[in-house]
Amino acid sequence: MEAVTVMEAVTVMEAVTVMEAVTVMEASNKREDGTRLMEDKELIREAYKAQKYSYSPYSGFQVGAALLGKSGCVYTGCNIENAAYSPTNCAERTAFFKAVSVGEREFEKIVIVGNKEGGLDEERDYCAPCGVCRQVMAEFCNPKEFMVLLAKSETDYRTYRLEELFPLSFSKDNL
Ligand SMILES: [Zn+2]
User: Fold this and answer.
1) How wide is the angle at C-alpha 146 spanned by C-alphas 140 and 148, nearest 5°?
2) Global pTM?
3) Distance 163 CA to ligand 1 centre (A)
4) Is 46 a catalytic residue?
5) Where along the chain is Zn(2+) bound (predicted)?
6) Which residues are annotated binding-site positions?
7) Tens-digit pLDDT string for the chain (175 aa)
8) Domains of the chain
9) Annotated binding site for Zn(2+)
């Protein structure tokens, strides 16, 4: 079964609320025995699909992200640049903000892919999240459990726990 994005489900089910759509997708994203259909390579595929929507006319660096919620739903994001530069939003935060804005607050993992526009596949490198995105991940995720996957292809990727990428972080636990 193909992974279903929130927007696809929302489009199909205009009359239902987003949270109802999330519930439907949760069911559609599981096998009969309850295990998840979403394998790493499928999530990587979703990140590459999102990368195609990157709006990056200034840097030419295109980033895609696919965030897996604990509900089983996938939230995708791309980087969205701006002529004034500072309003630019990263792919990872786009995915997180989409998820939180429809009620999902618990997450399992995120895949990040990125490369210069027009670059060759073999020139791809692992694309790590910026510090601001790591801070946003720390707001909603347990750093000991949340996984960050940096992919160069569906089979070539590195996996990190958030605490490896963002040690000694400041979070709501400090307040
Ligand atoms: Zn970022």
Assistant:
1) 110
2) 0.80
3) 16
4) no
5) 90, 130, 133
6) 79-85, 90, 130, 133
7) 445 555 454 444 444 444 444 444 444 455 555 555 579 999 999 999 999 999 999 999 999 999 999 999 999 999 999 999 999 999 999 999 999 999 999 999 999 999 999 888 788 899 999 999 999 999 999 999 999 999 999 999 999 999 999 999 999 989 9
8) 22-174 (3.40.140.10)
9) 90, 130, 133
Find, among 112, 113, 98, 56, the residue nearest to 79 by Cα: 56
d(CA 7, ligand 1 centre) in Å = 22
Query: What distance lies between CA 20 and its chain's CA centroid?
Result: 21
Catalytic choice (20, 26, 39, 92):
92
Q: How far is the CA of 155 from the centre of ligand 1 (A)?
A: 24
- Rounded CA-CA distance 174/167 in Å is 14
**Token reading at 3:** 């992974």
